[in-house]
Each structure stands twice: as structure tokens, then as C-alpha cells.
Design goal:
By secondary structure, the protein is α+β, with helices and mostly antiparallel strands. The chain is built from four helices and four strands, in the order βαβαββαα. A four-stranded mixed sheet has the order 2-1-3-4, covered by helices on one side.
Amino acid sequence: MKTVTIYTKPTCPYCIAAKQLLNNKSVAFDEISVYDISQETRQELSVKTNGYRTVPQIFIGETFIGGFDQLNKLNNDGKLDELLA
């Protein structure tokens, strides 16, 4: 199974929803608070996400999939399990 990394803010409702969706599917993930990363890391993240500014920022392996709405759509369309495999 590919590694899932999710960049979050503690009180973000979409972050909480994304983590809940992953937990409900028994998907392990690495959570990184955007408050805990350096400015340099933030810039690297911005490059990887093409300037995506909101959280959560979700990666499956090295692939940026977007935020909660995109994660939820992949799940509802039956494509999330495929990406995780």
C-alpha cells in the first residue's frame, strides 16, 4: 500500500473529515501540521502542489491528489482503493 501524507491545520474541518475518511477505510497516514514545517518546506510544497493554498493537502505516494473534496470524490467513484494499492 502506498504511503498517504496529509498536511493539515489542527482546527480545519476539512482536515478532520479527510482523516476520518482515511481512518474509516483503515488507511494509515502521516499527518504533518503546516505550522510545524519550515518556510523552505512550505515553498517546496507549493511547487509540488502547483500553488495549492488550502489544507488539507493530500498525497498518495508522490502524487498530489488535492484536498478533502477530491479525496471524497475518489472514494465515492471507487477510485481511491485503486490509487492506494
